[in-house]
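User: Just a sanity check before I run the rest of the batch. Below are the C-alpha cells for the first item. I only need the designed sequence back.
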C-alpha cells in the first residue's frame, strides 16, 4: 500500500508577511464601508461602480460576480477548502475557474461581499485588482517549479511583479486594464504573446540568466501578437524596465476612445521601434535615479518561499499499469517532472457535458484531500480552465486516478478536442452577445468517443460569447465567436490561431452559423483535416499548409438530405 505524503507544513508558495496582512485587512474594511453606503443608498451605482471594480466585484445579468485573485495560479489545500466553503455558503455551490488563473463566484449578494472578503483574507487571498483599469492578476506557467523544461521557477518574479504593481501610485488608474504573464520555458503554456506585457526567463550568450520582455499583445476587438521590447534585461533591472513600459503606456495611450486605449493600439500606432525608443528613454532615467533596482537579497528572499519540496529519492520512475482507462488518462493528462519518480498530473474540468471550468464545493473539498495526500498540499489553475497537481509520485497515480473517477473529473482529454475553453457567455455576462456553454457542451458530445479524439490529436477549441474574447477565441486552433444578428445568436468560426510559442491569430472564415449548426460545421472542418493531413501533422499544421479554402467549402456545405 502506498504511504501518503506527510501533511505539508508550508507549501512552496508565497506567504503573507505583516505588511501583506495589514494591507489586505485594511482594504477589506474600507470596501465594507463602501458596500454599506451603497446598500443605504448613499452611493449611486455610478459612484459605486469604480469602487467595486477595484475590488473584483462585477454586476452581471442575474447577480453580482466576485473574481478572486489566484496569483500565478498557485493554491494551497487550505485555500481550496475555503473556496469550497464560500461556494457552499454564499453562492449556488460552485465556482468557475477562468483563463486568467482566477476563480469566479457568479451568484453573490452584495450584502455578503464584506464577509466573503474577510473569509478570503483569513487564508491569504483577496480580490484586489482583479478588475478595473489597473495591473490585473499576474499569471504564469502552471507547470512552474515542476517541469524539467524551465530555466528557473518563474513564480518568484511573478510574485515580485505582483507586489510592485499592487496599488502602484502611478498605475492604479490606467487607460485600460493591463495583463502581465511570466514564463520560463521554450514551450509557452502561459500565452505570453497575447498579453499587454510578458516576461520570459532566458539565458544570454554568456550563460547569464535574465529576462526577455514583450509588450503589445492582446485579444478583444483588435487582436495583436506582442512585440519584443528587449531581448535581454538584467535581473536587477527588470522592475525598472517594466515600469518604463508602463510609464510610456500611461503617458501616451489614448484616453478619448475606449476602443483605442490598450497598449497594443499604442504600439501599433507609433510602431514597435518608436515604442522601444520611448521605453529606453524612460528606462535610462529610472536607472539613473536608482530607485527601482531589484536588490539580490530581495529576489533571494522571495525565491526562498518557492524552494522546491524535499522530493523523495529512490522512487520507481516508470508509470504503473492499472488498466486501459488509466493508460488513456496518463497518455494525455500526465507530464514529465524534474524529479525522478514524480509526475505532473492535469485534472481537466471538461468531462463531457460539464460546464468548462466549473467545480462544485464538494469536488473542491475532495480535490483538497487529494492535494494533501498526494501533491504536497498544492494545486495550480491553468490558462485552459483546468487544474494541475504539480508534484505527485508516479506510484500514486492509480490512486489519484481512482479518486478523480469518483469525482467525475478523470476525463482523459487534456489537449484534445473536448478540452474546450469557454467563457460564461450570455448565461451570466451582460456584455455577451451569445451563449458559450451550450455550444461547448454540444461540440464535446459530438466528439465524445475517445478513440476518435485520439485519432484527431491535439486540437484546441476556444469559445467566446462576445468580442471581448474572454474565451481566447483568437488563439484557438478552432475559435468560435458568438455574435448578435438582429436579436438571434450566431457564431463565427476562426481557424489557425495559437496561444503557444508559435502564436498566431485565427482567421475569420466568413458568415456565421446558427446555434444548432455550429457543432456540425466544426465536425465538417475536422473532417477536412483528417482527410488532408500528413503523418504527424496537428490540425494547426495542416491548416497552415493548405489554407482556409477547403475548410470553408466544407463548413458551409450542408449534409445531403
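Assistant: Here's the designed sequence for the first item:
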Amino acid at each position: 500500500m502506498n504511504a501518503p505524503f506527510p501533511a505539508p507544513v508550508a507549501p512552496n508558495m508565497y506567504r503573507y508577511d505583516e505588511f501583506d496582512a495589514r494591507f489586505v485587512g485594511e482594504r477589506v474594511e474600507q470596501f465594507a464601508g463602501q458596500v454599506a453606503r451603497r446598500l443605504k443608498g448613499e452611493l449611486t451605482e455610478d459612484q459605486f461602480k469604480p469602487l467595486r471594480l477595484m475590488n473584483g466585484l462585477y454586476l452581471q445579468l442575474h447577480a453580482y460576480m466576485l473574481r478572486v485573485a489566484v496569483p500565478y495560479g498557485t493554491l494551497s489545500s487550505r485555500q481550496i477548502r475555503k473556496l469550497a466553503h464560500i461556494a457552499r455558503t454564499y453562492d449556488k455551490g460552485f465556482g468557475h475557474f477562468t483563463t486568467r488563473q482566477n476563480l469566479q463566484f457568479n451568484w453573490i449578494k452584495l450584502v455578503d461581499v464584506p464577509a466573503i472578503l474577510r473569509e478570503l483574507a483569513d487564508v491569504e487571498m483577496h480580490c484586489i485588482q482583479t478588475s478595473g483599469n489597473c495591473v490585473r492578476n499576474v499569471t504564469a506557467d502552471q507547470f512552474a517549479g515542476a517541469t524539467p523544461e524551465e530555466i528557473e521557477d518563474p513564480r518568484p518574479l511573478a510574485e515580485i511583479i505582483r507586489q510592485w504593481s499592487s496599488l502602484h501610485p502611478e498605475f492604479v488608474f490606467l487607460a485600460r486594464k493591463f495583463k502581465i504573464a511570466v514564463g520560463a520555458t521554450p514551450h509557452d503554456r502561459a500565452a505570453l504573446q497575447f498579453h499587454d506585457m510578458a516576461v520570459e526567463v532566458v539565458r544570454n550568450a554568456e550563460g547569464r540568466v535574465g529576462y526577455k520582455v514583450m509588450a503589445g499583445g492582446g485579444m478583444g476587438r483588435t487582436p495583436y501578437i506582442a512585440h519584443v521590447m528587449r531581448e535581454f534585461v538584467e535581473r536587477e533591472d527588470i522592475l525598472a524596465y517594466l515600469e518604463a513600459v508602463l510609464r510610456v503606456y500611461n503617458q501616451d495611450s489614448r484616453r478619448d476612445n475606449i476602443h483605442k486605449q490598450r497598449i497594443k493600439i499604442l504600439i501599433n500606432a507609433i510602431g514597435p521601434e518608436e515604442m522601444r525608443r520611448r521605453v529606453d528613454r524612460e528606462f535610462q532615467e529610472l536607472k539613473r535615479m536608482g530607485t527601482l533596482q531589484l536588490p539580490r537579497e530581495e529576489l533571494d528572499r522571495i525565491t526562498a518561499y518557492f524552494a522546491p519540496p524535499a522530493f523523495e529519492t529512490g522512487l520507481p520512475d516508470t508509470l504503473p499499469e492499472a488498466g486501459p482507462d488509466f493508460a488513456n488518462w496518463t497518455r494525455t493528462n500526465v507530464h514529465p517532472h524534474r524529479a525522478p519518480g514524480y509526475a505532473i498530473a492535469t485534472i481537466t474540468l471538461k468531462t463531457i457535458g460539464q460546464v468548462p471550468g466549473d467545480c462544485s464545493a464538494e469536488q473542491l473539498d475532495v480535490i483538497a484531500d487529494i492535494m494533501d495526500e498526494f501533491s504536497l498540499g498544492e494545486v495550480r489553475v491553468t490558462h485552459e480552465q483546468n487544474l494541475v497537481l504539480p508534484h505527485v509520485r508516479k506510484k500514486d497515480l492509480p490512486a489519484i486516478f481512482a479518486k478523480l473517477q469518483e469525482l467525475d473529473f478523470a476525463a482523459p482529454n487534456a489537449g484534445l478536442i473536448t478540452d474546450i475553453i469557454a467563457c460564461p457567455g450570455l448565461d451570466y455576462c451582460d456584455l455577451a452577445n451569445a451563449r458559450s456553454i451550450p455550444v461547448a457542451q454540444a461540440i464535446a458530445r459530438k466528439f465524445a468517443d475517445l478513440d476518435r479524439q485520439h485519432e484527431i490529436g491535439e486540437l484546441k477549441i476556444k469559445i467566446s460569447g462576445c468580442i471581448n474574447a474572454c474565451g481566447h477565441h483568437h488563439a484557438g486552433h478552432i475559435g468560435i465567436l458568438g455574435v448578435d444578428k438582429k436579436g438571434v445568436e450566431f457564431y463565427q468560426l476562426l481557424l489557425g490561431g495559437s496561444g503557444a510559442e508559435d502564436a498566431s491569430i485565427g482567421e475569420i472564415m466568413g458568415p456565421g452559423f446558427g446555434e444548432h449548426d455550429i457543432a456540425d460545421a466544426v465536425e465538417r472542418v475536422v473532417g477536412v483535416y483528417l482527410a488532408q493531413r500528413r503523418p504527424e501533422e496537428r490540425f494547426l499544421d495542416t491548416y497552415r499548409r493548405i489554407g482556409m479554402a477547403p475548410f470553408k467549402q466544407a463548413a458551409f456545405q450542408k449534409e445531403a438530405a
